[in-house]
Design goal:
This protein has 105 residues and is an all-alpha fold. The chain contains 5 helices and no strands. This is DUF2834 domain-containing protein.
Length: 105
């Protein structure tokens, strides 16, 4: 359970903050993303986040395979990552920490 504490706290805090912001937003998530990509300075940050998200996705896939799980088992986490970048890997870490390790990992 100790390995779950930090990602669980981060997941709850960040997901709560995300929901709060989305409820107060004056534009849709898609419109917000388009506006971020329309300027080089903010586009750089978005590209950087998605590069990190891609690396996290690769890690989640490899970790699942190493634990004897199907590569398809990470698809829900990848979909969440594609929309809410940090939430997908945090959720993966929480679920991973709550499940028994496979193959002695």
């Amino acid at each position: 359970m100790k390995s779950v504490a930090l990602p669980l706290v981060a997941l709850i805090a960040f997901a709560g903050y995300t929901v709060s912001v989305m409820l107060q937003a004056e534009q849709s998530l898609l419109d917000f993303g388009i506006s971020l990509m329309s300027r080089p300075d903010t586009a750089q940050v978005v590209i950087d986040l998605y590069l990190l998200a891609t690396l996290a996705g690769i890690w989640m896939y490899r970790d699942a395979r190493k634990r004897g799980r199907s590569g398809l088992s990470v698809v829900p986490y990848l979909l969440v990552t594609a929309i809410f970048v940090s939430v997908g890997p945090l959720l993966y870490l929480v679920v991973r920490g709550l499940t028994k390790p496979d193959h002695g990992v």
